[in-house]
Write a structure and sequence with these properties.
Elements: H1 2-46, H2 50-58, H3 67-80, H4 84-95, H5 104-117, H6 122-133, H7 138-153, H8 159-179, H9 186-196, H10 202-214, H11 218-225, H12 230-244, H13 247-260, H14 267-279, H15 284-292, H16 301-311, H17 315-328, H18 335-348, H19 352-365, H20 372-385, H21 389-402, H22 407-416, H23 445-451, H24 455-461, H25 466-475, H26 479-492, H27 503-507, H28 513-519, H29 525-536, H30 556-566, H31 575-592, H32 597-606, H33 608-617, H34 623-628, H35 633-652
Helix pairs in contact: 1-2, 2-3, 3-4, 4-5, 5-6, 5-7, 6-7, 7-8, 8-9, 10-11, 11-12, 12-13, 12-14, 13-14, 14-15, 15-16, 16-17, 17-18, 18-19, 18-20, 19-20, 20-21, 20-22, 21-22, 22-35, 25-26, 29-35, 30-31, 31-32, 32-33, 32-35
C-alpha cells in the first residue's frame, strides 16, 4: 500500500510538470506566433490594405498579449472599410474582455463615437460610462462634447422636456470648455452653446472668451469679455489687448487691475500680465521702474519687487533689496530665491558664519527648490573654508546624489575628486537611443508594440508619458521635438534616475557627435556637443531673433570671417560646415582667454569683450565666484547650462 501511494505521488508530480510545461509551451508559442502575425498585419495596415490587414490581425492567437491590440487594429481596419457595425463588435470585445488592458478606454471611446455616427442610442450610455470610469482622461473630456450633441440631436417634444434637455446639453458643453478651452472641439462647442440660446452668466461669457483666446480668436474673445465685469476679467482684457497689439489699452487694463483687483486673480495670470506690461516698454528696466511706481500692495507686488531686485547692479544695494523683499514676503513665491541671494551676498563678502546660518535656514525652510542645489554646494564650500572637511565632502556628495544633472553636481564632483581635473570627460562612447523602459508596461503590451513599430498606437496609449512621446518623435526623426519633450519629462521627475537609465539618452542624444569628433580641432568634443544642444536643440535650421543660425548658432558676420580664414563652404546651415566653423570660433575664443573652457563658454554667449571686461571689474577668488557674479543673467545661465550638459553627457556615455 505504501509503495502504491509513493507511485501515485510520483505520477502526480510527473503529470503536474507535464501540464505546466504544456501550458508554458503553448503560451510561448502563442507569444511567438502573435508577434509574427501582428508584424505582418501591421505592414499591410501601413500599406492601406485593410482587408488583408484585418485577416492577418485575426490570426494573432488569443493567448498572446498582443490580442487586444490586434482586435483594436481590426476595428480600425473595419472603420476604414466603412464597416462600422463590425468595428463596434471588435471594440466591444476589448471593452468586455476579462483581461484588463490599457486599450480599453480608447476602445470604448471609439466604439461610442461609431455608435453616435450610426445614431445608436447606446452611445450615450458608453460616453457616460467613460466619464465615470476614466474621469481624468482626454476621452472623458471629449465625451462631454458628444453627450451635449446627443442631448440637442433628439430634443423632446414637450416644452418642459426641451428645457431640461437644453440645460443638460449646456452643462456638458461647459464641462468640455472648462477642461479643454483649447481642445479640438472647443470652437464647435461654443457654436453649439450659441444655438441653445440660453441665458449666459458673467462666468459663462468669461469661459467662452477664454476659449476663444486659447484658440487665437482674439477679436471674438473681446466681444465676450465686453459682456463680463472688469473686476473678474481685467487680466483677460489685458492679455487679449496685448495679443491684438493694443499696448496702450492693454497697459490701462493692467495698471487698473494690478492696483484694484489683483487679489482676486490667480497668481499665474497676474504674473503673465506683468511680463506683458514690462515687454511693452522699449527698455525692460523702464517697464520695471514704471511697474514699481504703481504702489502695488496685493498679488503681484512681490513679483514686481523681485524683478526690481534682479535689475539692481550694486552688490550692497542688491543684498538690501532682496533682504527687504524676503522680510516683507517670507512665505511668498520668491522668498526662496531672495534668501539665496542674501546667502550668496554674505558668501561673496567672505562672511562665512553669516552665510552658513542663512544656508541652514534655506535648506530647512526650502528643502527642494530651484536654488537648493546651489545652497547645498556653497554650504560645502563654506564648510571647507571653515576646515570642516568631512562636512564639506558630505555636502558635495549630497549635491551629486540629489541633483545629479545639475551644474552644481559638476562643480561638486571637481571639489571631491580634483585629480580628475575640471573637465574629466574627454570623449563619448556612442550608445543608441532605444525605447526608454526596460521593464514591461501593461503586461509587456506597450513594449511589444514599440518594438513592432506600431508608433501610432503606442502614442495613443501613452499620451501623458513624455519619454515615450519623445522616443516616438525620435523614431520619426523629429529630433528637436524629441529632445524638448524628454527634457520636460525629466524636469517633472521628483527623483532623478541613475545615469544608466535609458531615458537620459532621449534627453541627451548624440546627434552630430560623429561630425563633432572629426572637426573638434583642439577642443573637447563633449563641450562642443553641449553647446550644440543648448544653442539649437539639434535643429540645423534654427535661427535666433538676432540672426544667429545653424546648429552652433553663429552670427553671419562671425561665420563669414571664419569661412574666409579657414576656406570653408559658405552655407551657414550646412551641418558639417556650421560645426566646423563653430569649432574654429570656439578655439579662437579659448586661445585668447588663456585656454580656459569656462571663459570661452561665457564668451560664446556674452562676447569676448564682455568677458575680458569682467576679469578687471569683478572681484573673485575662484571660478565659482566669477560665474555667480556674471552681470548678464542670460550668460550666467548659459554657462551653467552648457557645463551641466557636458557633465550629463560624460556620465551617460
Amino acid at each position: 500500500m505504501r509503495r502504491r501511494r509513493k507511485y501515485d505521488f510520483y505520477l502526480f508530480v510527473f503529470l503536474t510538470i507535464l501540464t505546466v510545461g504544456y501550458f508554458t509551451y503553448n503560451h510561448m508559442s502563442a507569444e511567438s506566433r502573435g508577434v509574427e502575425n501582428y508584424s505582418e498585419a501591421l505592414e499591410a495596415y501601413k500599406a492601406s490594405d485593410y482587408e488583408k490587414a484585418y485577416e492577418e490581425f485575426a490570426k494573432v492567437p488569443s493567448g498572446s498579449t498582443l490580442k487586444p491590440s490586434a482586435l483594436f487594429r481590426q476595428a480600425r481596419c473595419a472603420t476604414n472599410m466603412d464597416k462600422k457595425e463590425l468595428a463596434i463588435k471588435k471594440y466591444n470585445r476589448i471593452v468586455h474582455s476579462s483581461v484588463k488592458s490599457s486599450i480599453a478606454p480608447i476602445s470604448e471611446y471609439n466604439m461610442a463615437n461609431l455608435m453616435f455616427e450610426i445614431q445608436d442610442k447606446g452611445a450615450k450610455k458608453h460616453f457616460k460610462k467613460i466619464i465615470k470610469k476614466y474621469p481624468t482622461s482626454d476621452y472623458a473630456v471629449a465625451s462631454n462634447y458628444y453627450l451635449g450633441l446627443i442631448e440637442v440631436s433628439n430634443p423632446p417634444k414637450s416644452e418642459r422636456g426641451l428645457k431640461k434637455s437644453k440645460n443638460r446639453a449646456f452643462i456638458y458643453f461647459k464641462n468640455y470648455l472648462e477642461e479643454a478651452p483649447d481642445g479640438r472641439f472647443a470652437l464647435k462647442t461654443i457654436d453649439e452653446i450659441k444655438k441653445l440660446g440660453v441665458q449666459l452668466t458673467n462666468y459663462d461669457n468669461l469661459l467662452i472668451a477664454k476659449s476663444y483666446y486659447a484658440n487665437g480668436e482674439y477679436t471674438k474673445a473681446k466681444d465676450y469679455l465686453n459682456k463680463t465685469t472688469l473686476a473678474e476679467s481685467w487680466s483677460d482684457f489685458a492679455k487679449n489687448e496685448y495679443k491684438l497689439g493694443n499696448k496702450e489699452k492693454a497697459n490701462y487694463y493692467a495698471e487698473l487691475g494690478l492696483k484694484k483687483h489683483a487679489s482676486n486673480t490667480p497668481n499665474a495670470d497676474v504674473y503673465e500680465v506683468i511680463d506683458n506690461y514690462i515687454a511693452s516698454f522699449p527698455l525692460r528696466r523702464d517697464g520695471i521702474i514704471k511697474l514699481n511706481s504703481l504702489g502695488l500692495n496685493s498679488t503681484g507686488a512681490d513679483y514686481a519687487a523681485y524683478l526690481n531686485c534682479n535689475e539692481v547692479v550694486a552688490s550692497n544695494l542688491k543684498e538690501a533689496c532682496y533682504r527687504t523683499l524676503y522680510e516683507k514676503y517670507p512665505s511668498g513665491q520668491f522668498s526662496a530665491d531672495s534668501l539665496f541671494n542674501i546667502f550668496m551676498a554674505k558668501y561673496l563678502q567672505k562672511k562665512y558664519y553669516d552665510a552658513q546660518r542663512l544656508g541652514f535656514l534655506h535648506l530647512k525652510k526650502f528643502p527642494d527648490v530651484n536654488s537648493s542645489p546651489a545652497v547645498t554646494y556653497y554650504m560645502g564650500k563654506i564648510a571647507f573654508k571653515l576646515k570642516h572637511y568631512e562636512s564639506s565632502n558630505n555636502y558635495y556628495k549630497q549635491v551629486i546624489a540629489k541633483y545629479p544633472d545639475s551644474y552644481y553636481a559638476f562643480r561638486a564632483n571637481y571639489n571631491l575628486y580634483k585629480d580628475d581635473g575640471l573637465f574629466p570627460f574627454l570623449e563619448l562612447n556612442e550608445k543608441p537611443v532605444v525605447f526608454p523602459y526596460k521593464k514591461s508596461l501593461d503586461n509587456n503590451l506597450v513594449v511589444k508594440l514599440a518594438y513592432l513599430k506600431d508608433y501610432d498606437l503606442v502614442e495613443e496609449l501613452c499620451k501623458k508619458d513624455k519619454f515615450i512621446q519623445s522616443w516616438i518623435a525620435y523614431e520619426k526623426e523629429n529630433y528637436t521635438i524629441s529632445a524638448v519633450l524628454a527634457r520636460k519629462g525629466m524636469e517633472e521627475l521628483a527623483v532623478k534616475p541613475s545615469f544608466e537609465d535609458l531615458r537620459w539618452r532621449l534627453v541627451y542624444p548624440m546627434h552630430y557627435y560623429d561630425i563633432v569628433d572629426k572637426v573638434k580641432g583642439g577642443n573637447n568634443p563633449i563641450i562642443l556637443e553641449a553647446i550644440i544642444k543648448e544653442e539649437s536643440h539639434f535643429n540645423p535650421f534654427a535661427k535666433s531673433s538676432v540672426g544667429a543660425a545653424g546648429l552652433m548658432q553663429l552670427m553671419p558676420a562671425t561665420y563669414n570671417e571664419v569661412v574666409k580664414k579657414h576656406n570653408l563652404p559658405s552655407d551657414l546651415n550646412a551641418e558639417t560646415a556650421n560645426i566646423t566653423a563653430g569649432s574654429y570660433y570656439y578655439s579662437g575664443l579659448k586661445k585668447v582667454l588663456g585656454n580656459k573652457d569656462l571663459y570661452a563658454i561665457a564668451a560664446y554667449n556674452g562676447g569676448i569683450g564682455s568677458v575680458t571686461n569682467w576679469f578687471s571689474k569683478l572681484i573673485y577668488s575662484d571660478i565659482d565666484e566669477f560665474v555667480e557674479q556674471i552681470p548678464y543673467p542670460e550668460t550666467k545661465n548659459y554657462v551653467k547650462k552648457v557645463l551641466r550638459t557636458y557633465w550629463v553627457y560624460g556620465n551617460v556615455y
